[in-house]
Amino acid sequence: MGLKTIGVEEVDVERDGNIAAEVRAIETHTGRTATARAHRFTFFAKSVDRPSFRFLPDRYFIGYAVVLQLTLEKRWSAPRTLAYVYEAIFRHSAHLDEKSKGWKGLLNNYVHVGRRFQCQAGGRTYRLTGTYFRQQNTYTAVCAHASLCMLLNNLPTMRELVTAEDINQKLGITHRGKRRVAGGLTTEQIRRVLKAYGQSDITHDFFKYPDADYAQFVYGVVESGYPCLLVTTTAPGRESHVVTVLGHTMNTDKWLPEARVLYEGQDFSCHSSVNWATHLIIHDDNFGNYLCAETNSVRRITLPSYEMRFRPRVAIGVLPCRVQARHPDVEEIVVHRMPWETLLAMLVSHPDVASMKWLPRLFRELTKGNRLVTRTFLATREAYRSHLREAKDFQRRGYTKKEVALLTAGFPVYFWVTEVSLPDLYAVNRTKLADVVVPCDRRLRRRNPFENILLLRLPGLYYNPANVPFLSFVPLGDVQSHIPLFGTDRGW
Predict the structure, then answer these.
(1) How many Cα neighbours within 13 Å face the side chain of 127?
(2) In angstroms, rounded to a whole number, what is the distance separating the alpha carbons of residues 79 and 365?
(3) For the residues of 439-492, what is the DSSP string, one character each?
(4) What number of other Cβ atoms are within 10 A of residue 327's Cβ?
(5) Residue-range domains of the chain with CATH
(6) Phi and psi for 364 in degrees, rounded to 5?
(7) Could you tell me the pTM of the whole model?
(8) pLDDT tens figures, 387-439
(9) What DSSP assignment string belongs to 233-256?
């Protein structure tokens, strides 16, 4: 990130109410007296040629970390020492482009979660868009506390930073008697905390339902722009561990997605874009922030009863609404149950398709045995409308406001979108050819997938049951080519 200057300041522990509350909680939990010191380390992407770094503009501000050091003393006992990152806020992984005076993200790194922060350092306020990080203290805040803080504090809807003691208060943990932090937090305790902060969770237990792919589940949450907790087992006899997933990487040269289709002879028409995601970008309170965990790092082919060590146990994601249809169900219906080849065969005989290029090509790709690529995420009506208004196809043609209104007629506030592309368009151009929109607030019908559709947008054609007869595809506008994927213009 181009670090050139570090500023160091001592933090007044007693004047900082949140730090003081955590220190008192540790004293109560351990029965020891704590001597505490805290320092704020502030990081800049420019060398300082003045006595103080407070004169640097916001664009050079990388972030800060507050390190809390404790000495815990008790009569007749040896003192204990403890040091950990109490709180940190950093920009997304990027480098500063001096020509444009802006930050450019790392190639093929997609951190979809983050918010705007105001950070105090050097007697002034710096502003940045990034993410929050903290570590556990092992006494009153374990990895689940740290991960919950990293999940909640990175939601754009949150205003004040949530602390570990805030979480303990929500759970009635007083650090006395039986109301103490012991080992970790249960899945139900984590869900209670999320509910207390007004968040809707989407949870999957991989021990109870081991057939689900953990990477696909987590990927669908972060592609929607929301964080997800991933709980994994550790060595036998030890507590599980929790990390916070904020994004993913993408490898456009990955061999497996298309090779598997050819060599395994899979008999479905589509495969998920998660196959190109090589890593999940995580915050792990033990090791640091913006780490890359391989998507197959904890994947196991055995059942939990045969091998407990280091495998996914539970994933707990946050979404802006309570969903009845989950994204793995959407993928199942759109990927495996939609008769894409039959549908496209019908459409290429449409009189308005004769002069089109990409719709017939879609059909030809399927008949040659190639597969479509699908990418599923939760979207809002306004964000999706904005995406359609701004999108331009390969010939720089776009939708008019009237056409966007026709495409999105009858839409609810939230819904699932499955983007459909070809492997080369998805991996190289980051573009798509079609959108399938289905509701998220009701269970989807499996027998006839078309009954679920709110919109099926194709090059030059569309079907929206709100304004056209059932399965009647209507010509619309000049967009007859591929357009950018949703969110590819999202920058930090």
Answers:
(1) 2
(2) 70
(3) ESSSPPPSS-GGGG-SEEEETTEEE-TTTS-TT--EE-SS--S-EEPTTTT---
(4) 25
(5) 5-319 (3.90.70.10), 327-484 (no CATH)
(6) -65, -40
(7) 0.90
(8) 999 999 988 999 999 999 999 999 999 999 999 999 889 988 999 999 999 99
(9) --STTS--EEEEEEEEE--TT-SH
